[in-house]
Design a protein that fits this description.
With 108 residues, the chain is mostly helical. The chain has three helices and no strands. The protein has two domains: 57 residues; 50 residues. The radius of gyration is 36 Å and the shape is elongated.
Length: 108
């Protein structure tokens, strides 16, 4: 098959696909089927949420919110740990300074 035959085949294929797509887009049957599928999906999601709620199980959204809150709490805890470390170092410096001052006062 030469290059021109491939181009012709490609052009005819693209035209056929385009015509099929247009027929599908113009089809009320397809439109109704898609609408019914989305309606069924929505009803299934509502039923799933109701069942999970009845069983007192968290939804994916609940789990995601909890995960975000835990990450936030973890970050805040790390900040508190850093502050405690700084205060501990400062307190150690103060204690060493007090001890040095006492030794100097005793030597005088």
């Amino acid at each position: 098959m030469d290059y021109e035959d491939q181009d012709g085949l490609r052009a005819r294929s693209e035209q056929a696909i385009g015509e099929l797509a247009q027929v599908l887009l113009d089809s009320n049957v397809l439109e109704n089927a898609v609408a019914a599928a989305f309606g069924a999906r929505e009803k299934a999601l509502e039923a799933q949420q109701a069942a999970m709620s009845a069983l007192n199980l968290p939804s994916a959204g609940d789990v995601e919110r909890l995960e975000r809150r835990l990450r936030s709490l973890s970050q805040r805890l790390e900040e508190v740990e850093d502050q405690v470390d700084r205060v501990s170092r400062d307190l150690g410096d103060i204690r060493r300074q007090i001890a040095a001052d006492r030794r100097a006062a005793v030597q005088d």
